[in-house]
Design goal:
The chain is mainly alpha-helical. The protein is 83% helix and 3% strand. It is built from 5 helices and 2 strands; from the N terminus they run E-E-H-H-H-H-H. Keywords: Lipid droplet.
């Protein structure tokens, strides 16, 4: 999109982070769990509703009160955002798992942990078994 007719809109690091499959998938899973918990438990739902209203009011007040500061420091925020975007580029290059959905990361992590545990168990049990055989 274009702002002021000729300048491309600046990339936003927060939007980029939220679009990473690992982040967006985790947020979706959390939201589903949160909503299903509220549906299943009316008391929890009423507490959550009150909390949500409070957070909404507080964030509106914070946005309104910070607006002059944000306007005044917009150049610094722009520079920080550009630096953060470059850092995110570097992270995405070095850590390809950021592009994986959470389910894939979990299954790969489970496999890695299982392999390590089997290896540790074997490194302990095999010497003990061979020693006990010799003793017997």
């Amino acid at each position: 999109t274009l702002l002021d007719g000729d300048l491309p809109e600046q990339e936003n690091v927060l939007h980029r982070v939220l679009q990473l499959p690992v982040v967006s998938g985790t947020c979706e899973r959390f939201q589903k769990t949160y909503n299903s918990t509220k549906e299943a438990h009316p008391l929890v739902a009423s507490v959550c509703h009150a909390y949500e209203k409070g957070v909404q009011g507080a964030s509106n007040l914070a946005a309104w009160s910070m607006e002059p500061v944000v306007r005044r420091l917009s150049t610094q925020f722009t520079a920080a955002n550009e630096l953060a975007c470059r850092g995110l580029d570097h992270l995405e290059e070095k850590i390809p798992a950021l592009q994986y959905p959470p389910e894939k990361i979990a299954s790969e992590l489970k496999g890695t942990i299982s392999t390590r545990l089997r290896s540790a168990r074997n490194s302990i049990s095999v010497p003990i078994a061979s020693t006990s055989d010799k003793v017997l």
